[in-house]
Amino acid sequence: MIAAEKLSLTYEKDNTRVEALADITFNLRKGSSLSVIGPSGCGKSSLLFVIAGLIKPTAGKIAIDGRVPDRTNPDTALILQDYGLFPWKTVYENASLGLRVRGYNKRAQRDIVMPILEKLGLAEFARHFPTQLSGGQKQRVAIARSLALSPKLLLMDEPLSSLDALTRENLQKFILDIWFRHSLTLVLVTHNIEEAVFLGSHILVMSERPGRVIDIIENPLVGTPGFRQSSGYHQLCSRLRGLLGVVN
Amino acid sequence: MIQGDRILKKSAEMLAAVFIIIALWHILAVFVKNQMLPTPWQAVSEFFGIFRSTLWMHFNASTSRVAVSLLLAAAIGVPAGLVTGREEILDRFLSPVIYLIYPIPKIVFLPIIFLFFGLGDFPKVFMISLIVTFQILVTARDAAKGIPAQNVYSMTSLGANRWHIYYHVIWPACLPKILTSLRISLGTAIAVLFFVESFATTEGLGYFIMDSWSRSEFSEMFAGIIGMSVLGLMLYILVDIIETRWCRWQNL
Questions:
Q1: N or C terminus of chain B: which is more exposed, having fewer CB within 10 Å?
Q2: A56 touches chain B (CB under 8 A)
Q3: What is the pLDDT of residues A188-238, one digit of tens each?
């Protein structure tokens, strides 16, 4: 699904050259989920933007299903850190926006969006505005908007970072559920070790800037019942802590 | 239901404010005891007395001048401002020009404008629009500039083109600020209207006020002033209505 080969990215910011990514190489099979974890400012989000086709890498190659990523590709959906919802649009208008800009008529928009809102428990909020929702609800609206486009690849940039612990765990299960049910390929950027382990069938550990790949860990137990309580889960968490230089 | 309650409450507040202003005016008039300052009762009865016979015509002329000027200013200022705020190349060319022209008191060009466009309605409308367009343009530009890149990213990632971004992001995000600038411009527009109507015309509230003054008809003059105030208030309320309809998300 995703093949990245020696990706590098440098850009200019305030007249200084910033080296964001260096030599990133990985492969991700269709239907897998990749957690990208690393210290803050290591270029995790930049990597996601490159995969989404919003930024072009300075060097190296990346292909999604054999093609160069393109931001207009309807098979790829991106969910941003602050959910990317527009406060001036209702829940329904936000959720159907992707379909609207892709030229679906009103009827088709409704037929696709309403069932998704229902499934995500948002139907009763369809006419609410985002400021009237809780953080967890907003996140679900952002997910609804992406699912409406029935993507094959779902990219998420620290989707749960601003939520409280309880909502966060619930939404983690929820994301896992969606990943299974829609047989998506998932790339999730996070700075939370537990989240990376809980959601990633593969975990890409990145170094400080410029972001390099420290390790890619396979996590075959992801999604199995009781995984969060298992010893495998805890062992993997401490392994990641070690790799990221967190002192126990 | 809640909407209705809000309107009722606002009307009650407004009524109270009108009452206070009238009371203050009355006290002042009684104190000053000068025929130049009639009591509110005299002025208001004069207003209603002459409204249908003479004042209406002037009120109408002024209303259409201000309304057309504001529409014209918004139609030019808003799109120009939004585009200048978003397109860097345009901004680099236009912003220094705007920076230089903005502080010039454009009202001083009135003689030249009269010279070029004659003495009809057009030069008056042109003058008001010229002044107000800049206020709206600068506000719209700064509002558009301040939109976080995240908003645009999240739109492009949905597959949006440039037009979609303007329509779904830039315009609604800037609308509250544009309406605020419209409110401020309204005051400016009416002030300029008064000035341009005191030259070379026999129609409009500005003319009516100046003419009554020269004839020492102070009750009439105040009827004109009330007319001017009603005109301003009407337009102000109109902007409020637009805001409650188009910016519902702002008042939750």
A1: N
A2: no
A3: 999 899 999 999 999 999 988 888 898 999 999 898 888 999 999 999 999
Distances (CA, A) of B196 to A77, A196, B232: 57, 69, 16
Closest CA to A42 of A231, A187, A169, A205: A205
pLDDT in the model for residue A140 = 87
Q: What are the residue ranges spanned by the domains of chain B?
A: 1-33, 41-250
pLDDT digits (tens, 9 = 90+) for A103-136: 999 999 999 999 889 888 899 999 999 999 988 8
* Cβ pair B65, B127 in contact under 8 A: no
CATH no., domain B41-250? 1.10.3720.10
Check whether residue A238 and residue A121 sit in a common domain.
no
Residues A228 and A175 placed together within one structural domain of the fold: yes
CA distance A204 to chain B (A): 23
Residues of A in contact with B155 (CB under 8 A): 97, 101
Same-domain check for residues A44 and A142: no
A176 shares a domain with A66: yes
- Closest residue, chain A, to B160 (C-alpha): A101
**Pick from A71, A101, A129: CB nearest B164:** A101
Last residue of a domain, one of A133, A150, A167: A150
Dump pLDDT digits (tens) for B93-116. Answer: 999 999 998 889 999 999 999 999
